[in-house]
């Protein structure tokens, strides 16, 4: 069997290749070269990129086998997450790989602007000894405004606290308790702008934050303020900042990111009091190694068919180890549901009962949807696009939990309401030390049948000879019965047969006629 193909579209740490291991065919391409990238994507299962490779809708459409886009870093400006989601392609990044490096660069830029390090360096190397011209300011007792108190902003606040600075912060999503732990005071943006001697930006780039620090904001700051942006280009309006510096309304700036990258032109470059770097936030050996290893591990999980909890476009959250063994069971129950129901429900309840409810089992909603649509739609169904299929077909899924499981330690039931108002349910559990997957209920009938690749489920009027006739017909077709169970309710019964091979549609129709079945379903759980 051929190995999955992983394309390395940019230079990554050698540790990335080592973390992938020997189970993949690894290829390389210049992701920045469109003519080279698009053909190279044709038959790959995963692509690893940094910031120079644009994985837009065109690139995703060119990659017919693509399952994972892995961005070895934090930002996803170069990845069309919506197009990837529609195509069922998982998008993963390394959200914590560069936070220390980015925080340290922000502090470095702030220090550089405070002490005029860059222009003094350039002047001295040019032959000028100008101590008085490049006199700076101390950080001690100054106020720094941290705009965005996420992971990087928090690290910056911690480090600047060590310089004896007063920390104020603006973040509408941060709690006063979190700010208090960092020694910061939460304030409104206008108050931060007015009070701060230094301002450092740590926000994501969104429609709301684009141009946030522009003409209006810069009209509210002290003329002695110094502004640092090592987050995302475009949050600070470069032209507005350049005008404010030229007019003496801002003392200086440290800028690592720009609205257009790469760039060698900006109005900020004309000012000696501005320190600029070419997007170096994540450019440390440590950050690159952490990012490469993190996304390589995610690629291994994704190509192995497993959930990646921190995938950008998969709403799964943390998955406890106790919850993971139930994932294949719940997916199979989803496939069995559509086989028995013959349609997609308008509402699906994932009813989980037993000790397992001590843990967060919300991921089973996603898993159930993946199983539900696997045999229904033509497109490949993944953990990424299963919620999209559900939304398109008007299927609402909800989780119901109860610590009381009755006869079993744990039991999961998928109960769905169909468009005609009828209700279909299938229940399953894991039994014994080997965690054997078993079907323990269908539409209110109690059972205990191993889940196998090929199964028949049929409801009929209970009478002698039915099972014998089925056995005879399957025997004539050279299909062996591996196991069976009948469950009865008054004059009705349900039969579940485990068979060793697939049952063709014509044979299933013949069996249904012989049984005079109320319902007859062929369940195929083969991958």
From TrEMBL:
Q: Which CDD domains does its entry note?
A: ACT_3PGDH-xct (cd04902), PGDH_4 (cd12173)
- Which keywords appear in this protein's UniProt record, sorted alphabetically? Amino-acid biosynthesis, NAD, Oxidoreductase, Serine biosynthesis
Report the protein's function.
Catalyzes the reversible oxidation of 3-phospho-D-glycerate to 3-phosphonooxypyruvate, the first step of the phosphorylated L-serine biosynthesis pathway. Also catalyzes the reversible oxidation of 2-hydroxyglutarate to 2-oxoglutarate.
| Keyword Transmembrane helix included in the entry's annotation | no
Its family?
A: Belongs to the D-isomer specific 2-hydroxyacid dehydrogenase family.
Q: What is the lineage of its organism?
A: Bacteria, Bacillati, Actinomycetota, Actinomycetes, Micrococcales
Q: In which pathway does it act?
A: Amino-acid biosynthesis; L-serine biosynthesis; L-serine from 3-phospho-D-glycerate: step 1/3
**A Gene Ontology molecular function term of the record:** phosphoglycerate dehydrogenase activity
Q: Which PROSITE patterns match?
A: ACT (PS51671), D_2_HYDROXYACID_DH_1 (PS00065), D_2_HYDROXYACID_DH_2 (PS00670), D_2_HYDROXYACID_DH_3 (PS00671)
Q: Which reaction does it catalyse?
A: (R)-2-hydroxyglutarate + NAD(+) = 2-oxoglutarate + NADH + H(+); (2R)-3-phosphoglycerate + NAD(+) = 3-phosphooxypyruvate + NADH + H(+)
ACT domain boundaries: 455-527
* Species per Swiss-Prot/TrEMBL record: Terrabacter terrigena
State the name under which the record lists this protein.
Answer: D-3-phosphoglycerate dehydrogenase
Q: What is its EC number?
A: 1.1.1.95
């Amino acid at each position: 069997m051929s190995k999955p193909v992983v394309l390395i579209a940019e230079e990554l740490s050698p540790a990335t290749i080592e973390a992938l291991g020997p189970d993949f065919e690894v290829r390389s391409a210049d992701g920045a070269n469109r003519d080279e990238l698009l053909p190279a994507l044709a038959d790959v299962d995963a692509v690893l990129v940094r910031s120079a490779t644009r994985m837009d809708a065109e690139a995703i459409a060119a990659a017919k086998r693509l399952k994972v886009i892995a961005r070895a870093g934090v930002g996803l400006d170069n990845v069309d997450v919506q197009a990837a989601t529609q195509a069922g392609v998982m998008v993963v990044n390394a959200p914590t790989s560069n936070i220390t490096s980015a925080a340290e660069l922000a502090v470095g830029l702030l220090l550089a602007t405070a002490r005029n390090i860059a222009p003094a360096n350039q002047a001295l190397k040019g032959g000028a000894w100008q101590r008085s011209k490049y006199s700076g300011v101390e950080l001690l007792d100054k106020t720094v405004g941290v705009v965005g108190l996420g992971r990087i902003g928090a690290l910056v606040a911690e480090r600047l606290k060590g310089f004896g600075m007063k920390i104020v912060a603006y973040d509408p999503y941060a709690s006063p308790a979190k700010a208090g732990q960092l020694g910061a005071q939460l304030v409104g943006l206008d108050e931060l702008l007015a009070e701060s001697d230094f301002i450092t930006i740590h926000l994501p780039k969104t429609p709301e934050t684009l141009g946030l620090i522009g003409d209006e904001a810069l009209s509210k700051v002290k003329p002695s303020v110094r502004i640092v942006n090592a987050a995302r280009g475009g949050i600070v309006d470069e032209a507005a900042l350049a005008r404010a510096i030229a007019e003496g309304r801002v003392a200086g700036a440290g800028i690592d990111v720009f609205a257009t990258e790469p760039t060698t032109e900006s109005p900020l470059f004309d000012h000696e009091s501005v320190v600029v770097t070419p997007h170096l936030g994540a450019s440390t050996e440590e950050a690159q190694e952490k990012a490469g290893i993190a996304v390589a591990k995610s690629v291994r999980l994704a190509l192995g068919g497993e959930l990646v909890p921190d995938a950008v476009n998969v709403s799964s959250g943390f998955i406890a180890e106790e919850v993971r063994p139930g994932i294949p069971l719940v997916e199979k129950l989803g496939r069995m549901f559509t086989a028995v129901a013959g349609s997609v429900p308008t509402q699906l309840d994932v009813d989980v009962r037993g000790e397992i409810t001590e843990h967060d089992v919300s991921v089973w909603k996603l898993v159930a949807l993946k199983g539900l649509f696997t045999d229904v739609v033509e497109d490949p169904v993944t953990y990424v696009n299963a919620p999209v299929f559900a939304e398109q077909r008007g299927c609402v899924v909800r989780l119901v939990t109860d610590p009381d499981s009755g006869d079993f330690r744990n039991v999961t039931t998928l109960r769905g309401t169909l468009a005609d108002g009828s209700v279909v349910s299938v229940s399953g559990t894991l039994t014994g030390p080997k965690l054997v997957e078993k079907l323990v209920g269908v539409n209110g009938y109690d059972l205990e049948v191993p889940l196998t690749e090929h199964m028949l489920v049929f409801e009929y009027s209970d009478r002698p000879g039915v099972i014998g006739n089925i056995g005879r017909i399957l025997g004539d077709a050279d299909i062996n019965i591996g196991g069976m169970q009948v469950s009865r309710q008054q004059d009705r019964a349900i039969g579940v047969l485990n068979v060793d091979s697939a049952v063709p549609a014509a044979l299933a129709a013949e069996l249904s006629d012989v049984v005079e079945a109320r319902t007859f379903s062929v369940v195929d759980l083969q991958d």
